[in-house]
Design brief:
The structure is a single chain. The chain is of the alpha/beta class and 159 residues long. It has one domain: YbaK protein. It has helices at residues 7-19, 35-42, 74-81, 91-98, 143-150; strands at residues 26-27, 49-56, 61-67, 87-88, 115-119, 128-131, 137-141, 153-155. Strands 1, 2, 3, 4, 5, 6, 7 and 8 form an 8-stranded mixed beta sheet that branches.
Length: 159
Amino acid sequence: MSLLDKEPVKRVQSILKEFDSEKKVIVLDTSARTALEAASSLGCEAGAIVKSLLFKTENSFILCLVAGDKKASLNKIKKILNIKDVSMASANDVKNITGYTIGGVSPIGHLNKVDIFIDNSLERFTSLYAAAGHPNCVFKTNYTELKKITNGTINKIIE
């Protein structure tokens, strides 16, 4: 079975096609499980890789899209949300909320609605690559498209 036949990858592909008929999932021969692996596989800077990080808040979850060369700041996320407690979501929570396993979490096509923050540092790149439902699958986009396709809110959420 091709990776393109896997349900999580099909979910991403379907949303990409609705957004722009020219968009498609790229299957890599090598892993893109981490930002560094993805950058190496694609021949781009680590910062051009969109990390999709799920955080557990006091009463819900938030997905933060962060440049591959940056780290999300829990303190900044807490301040933006005006809450006291934010932590990384567990692997089970990631799977249950997004429908993806860690290493393949896409910024689109989640099983459950989740609010999305997009770090403004991603704007420095002409092209961005985000996971597409599997550690060997990505899609190419840009900052403007990422905002539109995710309906995310731009924030300064890095350390």
